What does this fold into?
Amino acid sequence: MLGTAAAVLFFIAFLISAADIATNQAFSSGNVMLLGLTLLALHVAGIGAGWRPGRSRRR
It folds into this structure.
């Protein structure tokens, strides 16, 4: 899920940069890209993943 959110943020950052849209400092292309990188790093680290080790049921 976090990987998908990162991809969406990268696409938004690309649109802001490519279309040269004037935004305030909080939503600049670089800041949106850094948020995407943060989400991508969390995804790679396993945060937000559906599978958790040690959670299997044995009968």
